[in-house]
Amino acid sequence: MPINVREGTLGAILYNSRIISEADITAALEEQQRSSSRFGEALVSLGIVTQEDIDWALSNQLDIPYIRLKQEMIDPEALSLLPPHLCRIHQLIPLIRAGDELSIAIADPLNKEAVTAAAEASGCRINLSVALIREINEMLDLCYGLPREDLLGFSSGLLSPEQLSSINADSSGQQLINSLLAYSIQHQLTSFSFRPLEDLISISGRSGATSHELGQLTHEHYAGLCTLLRKAAGLLPSGETSQSGCLFFQYHEREICFQVLLLQGANGDYLTIRQHISATIPAKLDLLQLPDFQKQQFRRLATRRQGMILFASRSLQERCRFMDLMLEELDTDGQSVLILGKEPGRMNKRFPRIPLAGSEAARGRLIMDSLEHGPDILVIEDGTALESFTAAGRAAMRGKLVLVGMDIRGTRNLCDHLIRFRQRNAFLTPFLSGIVSFKGIQLLCPSCRQAATIAQQELLGLQMQPPPAELYHATGCPQCNYTGVSERIFLTNCICFDRELHARFDAASDGSSFIAGLNADGYRGIKAEGEVLLKAGAVSPEEFIAAVIQ
Q1: Mind giving me the DSSP string for 23-65?
Q2: How far apart are the C-alpha atoms of 161 and 91, rounded to whole Å?
Q3: Omega into 466 within 30° of 0, i.e. cis?
Q4: At residue 241, does pLDDT exceed 80?
Q5: What are 505-525's pLDDT values in tens digits?
Q6: What would the 3-class secondary structure string for 488-521 be?
Q7: CB 220, CB 145: distance < 8 Å
Q8: 285-549 CATH
Q9: Which of 142, 260, 450, 484 is deepest in the core (most CB within 10 A)?
Q10: Per CATH, which fold does 154-275 belong to?
Q11: Residues 6+ apart with CB under 8 A from 299
């Protein structure tokens, strides 16, 4: 089996059927990356196979019937069990119902998401047959009627009839995307989301803690709109249940970056789009805008010679750069340092790197195997899962200094995670040397900052008594590319554990109680520094809630 295909995938099935070679797989993967197409579509477009070749191989290897569709094979009662948009999204069509079983013809029988969606929508167990995409689409048009190509199906009470007419005339969805991006800039939205429901797509906007509806979209053209956004943001066409990427939008002759977040749902992609202001993490701690207290804590951690130091953030790149800052501060002369993962260790110092294994069990074994090579310092890109974390803890127990990335947002969430692991005897608290947790926060542009009045609900969301006397928004101007943001900085919690903190942590029932005890003793962390910025008018209340409270 070629190393670049997984068992059970289309590539593996075609290779095992001797329809394609390893060279064909490599060519198709390159075409897939270039064109953002599916693997099978890439093979067909390159002329390596025909669609009939693919369908025959799937049918033969998976022991699923391969049929040539005709209209008389389709029972109208079965058609009523699945909505047209679901069938078009997943390229399938109902054939016949027998008791609690529904037989369907599908172009891709490996698409588990499609089978699950059909089962949930129909309430039946699903039996599969394989059919040509072309014949499925023909039968969908015959049985359900042609999709409305002349109208996108978008409605909104916020836009003028002229704007709606222009948006709906473009069935690709590009005009709708452009209009929503411009609207989010003009109205200072934190984000907006496409939320697929069974009968429609709800489009909502979020400003701070408040959400409101922007409009609705029918399902007919939503799959095409999602494909458009996937390509624009550099996301894979399918396969990953959650992805993120960036797209760029021209507004008033300025290029503005938006982050696109995707979750695969039963009725289509759940998409959230928000403005993205990047923050550069310098290669020296002194150049990072941290309060003196947090810098002192960070440097205290850099004097440790054993134990685990955890780096928590949902951003892989950002938490790895903070791990790199720690490596820069550590005295590594005469020390053997080993990097496990692809991202850490990319600043000034260079160390040997070992790729992390795919499965969690394999990652745990790799961490333990690496100890046989005698490292003094072990850097683990991701130790969030139980197997990896337990192995990292064992490394610390053997006297190693272990820097561990954690795919967790916020100190409280990290502490809750650790307490659950402690309760499962996954690690011993005395070997926890420290925690570095951070959140990015966007500062208002001083050129367009204005005093603002916010609703009582948002004041309560600030969780400050009393709330600040004055609060500010930014309207957007040429100096900030109409984003209302001047820069993005980091708020940080650096916590050095000693005997007293170990005892407190062991006694804590959850993360909130542990952090409350720290704050009561005068610890100044993310929330305290965020409140200083809010009171100074440097951040908006919406950004404070999103970055600090939530």
Answers
A1: HHHHHHHHHHHHHT--HHHHHHHTTSS-HHHHHHHHHHHHT--
A2: 34
A3: yes
A4: no
A5: 999 999 999 998 998 888 888
A6: EEEEEEEEECCHHHHHHHHHCCCHHHHHHHHHHC
A7: no
A8: 3.40.50.300
A9: 484
A10: Beta-Lactamase (3.30.450)
A11: 285, 329
